Amino acid sequence: MNYEKSQRAFARAGKVIPGGVNSPVRAFKSVGIDPVVISSAKGSTIKDIDGNEYIDFVSSWGPLILGHANKTILDAIQEAAQKGTSFGAPTTMETEIAELIVQMVPSIDKVRMVNSGTEATMSALRLSRAYTKRDMFVKFAGNYHGHADSFLIKAGSGAITLGLPDSPGVTAATAQDTLLADYNNLKSVEELFRLHGKNIASVIVEPVAANMGVVPPNEGFLEGLRKLTDDYGTVLIFDEVITGFRLARGGAQEYFGVYPDLTTLGKIIGGGLPVGAYGGKAEIMNLLAPEGPVYQAGTLSGNPLAMAAGLAMLKALNETFGFYDDIEKKAARLEVGLRANLEKTGTNGIINRVGSLLTLFFTDKDEVTSFDEAMASDTGKFAKYFRKLLENGIYMAPSQFEATFISRAHTNKDIDNCIAASLKAMKSLS
Ligand code: KE4
């Protein structure tokens, strides 16, 4: 493949954009090559400015569960755009999407729209502190909740991909209220509650960890968090920015049958446009200004174009019979094929999959159920594998610590092409 135009474009970008990207993980730093620069995408295919085509398994990091440039979504955006791009005033569409979210997500009575997952999680944290009148909160090493200061403590995703688990610029004063626990280790949470229980405002968790690679919750883990937070009057926050509307209509909380007090949402909810949201029990949400004293605002929150895209997306998911079975079956097909490749090539690896989310870890371990086990993966081997996949027309997340996202647009042929390319890539590792 020829990447000359991408390389020139990336060098040019680096002169005026830090690292040449507007989000670090896009820079391909951990896979040792310059990123390809994208020109367009349609369905499951993405194209770079050199004209190379790839089957896309990143799906813009999750939002494009219907595939790229979906006609229903584009039509909705174009129709809304004819009426104006932003009003900074209430519109009926915001109410319509809020009603649909309340209907789809079991634990949400009321919801507030924002512009990113980061805004959703930082706002939910502030709200939980106001509701409980407590300062501390618990997060899990390797869980990523966006880039608000409080969360950049042993964060996942780009923060570990770049080896920046604790970012400079986060003050000690901020960090002292962030308590760190180990994912899938209830005892580590019980210990924090034993020490700080009455001071813990909330526990925030990715109900399926997807920012250390995909790590499912162990049996009883989420239920244990629910019991502990109930016992101490602590707010349980499910960060469903990835799992929301992906694992089921009602997200991970419906999939596992464990219901939080607050839920944060993003990605899919915007249909590819910038949208985040947070919602939950009315008694908590009613503390938000202007109804209550907790301030949170946004010039473009509930933007009509983003609402149009999000509403079209959620309606499609809500009304398409068998949607989740379809993407789960495709993800299972990929998992079976990758396992067969590991066998055929004698490559040591573990595959974790939940619904349409999966990660292949290059590791000698028998399982990956914790952050430490995930971090023991062979990132050098992953980088070689990634580059070989790219050469063979497969665009995978450029990090061992991210997920593979299956969409409605992926066909069985796409899946089989990925399996074939993966076999070639694995053979090149030995
Ligand atoms: P955003 O601010 O990027 O919209 O959402 C932050 C966020 C919050 N919670 C979870 C569970 C998330 O996964 C994310 C963002 N995910 C990463 C990919 N793992 C975004 C990709 C990027 O940073 O460019």
Descriptive report:
It is a single chain. By secondary structure, the protein is α/β, with parallel strands linked by helices. The protein folds into 2 domains: 4-69 and 322-429, Alpha-Beta Complex (Aspartate Aminotransferase, domain 1), CATH 3.90.1150; 71-319, 3-Layer(aba) Sandwich (Aspartate Aminotransferase, domain 2). Helices cover 38% and strands 14% of the residues. It contains 15 helices and 14 strands. The protein has helices at residues 4-13, 71-81, 92-104, 117-132, 158-161, 172-175, 186-196, 221-232, 251-256, 282-285, 304-319, 323-345, 371-375, 379-391, 412-427; strands at residues 38-42, 45-48, 53-56, 110-114, 136-140, 178-181, 200-205, 235-239, 262-265, 276-280, 350-354, 357-361, 394-395, 404-405. Strands 4-10-9-8-7-5-6 form a 7-stranded mixed β-sheet, with helices on both faces. A 4-stranded mixed β-sheet has the order 1-2-3-13. A hairpin with a 2-residue loop joins strand 11 and strand 12 (357-361). Helix 3 packs parallel to helix 11. The mean pLDDT is 96. Bound molecules: ligand KE4. Residues 23, 25, 61, 116-118, 121, 144-146, 157-158, 206, 211, 239, 241-242, 266, 276, 402 line the site of ligand KE4.
Question: What is this structure, in a nutshell?
Answer:
The protein has 15 helices and 14 strands. By secondary structure, the chain is of the alpha/beta class. α8 links the parallel β7 and β8.
